[in-house]
Design goal:
mainly beta; 49% strand
């Protein structure tokens, strides 16, 4: 990994963009999206995720953590809530996204090839709230806690 400015979470993600430098071997799991924590520092953590076609997340937040993610391979679609509906944003390999502590999104591999991404969170994730969009409003579906759900 290349040393980067730790205040720029997208730059930190870019520093982990090469799976050859990861402390774990990249995997693809046909049953569910694969993820592994690559690093933890005093103020942030770094995760790798792999996505087979059709795999994705529900709408969720990051429990008060700000973050960024970078698509390393393939294409991912991020959906955010805007104007009471979901708005998709395609992110191809090399594209990334910074987000604040109140960001709610869903991420899915809608392509026909596997995708890989690196995610950085500040502070480290402790919980994630999952949502449903009902009549244009976000409704809490459940809350997942670190150490229990992942």
């Amino acid at each position: 990994m290349t040393r980067t400015d730790p205040s720029d979470l997208l730059a930190v993600a870019a520093g982990w963009a090469d799976p050859a430098g990861w402390p774990v071997r990249l995997r693809f799991d046909p049953a569910e999206r694969w993820y592994a924590r690559l690093a933890v520092d005093h103020d942030h953590e770094v995760w790798a995720l792999s996505w087979l076609p059709g795999q994705g997340t529900d709408l969720h937040d990051h429990g008060g953590s700000a973050g960024a993610f970078l698509v390393v391979a393939g294409t991912l679609t991020e959906e955010t809530v805007s104007g009471a509906r979901l708005r998709p944003h395609r992110l191809a390999a090399g594209a990334g996204r910074r987000f604040g502590a109140r960001h709610v999104h869903a991420v899915t591999n809608r392509g026909d090839r596997p995708a890989v991404s690196v995610h950085v969170y500040r502070p480290a994730l402790r919980r994630m709230t999952h949502y449903r969009l009902v009549a244009g409003r976000l409704r809490v579906a459940d809350v997942a806690k670190a150490g229990t759900a992942w």
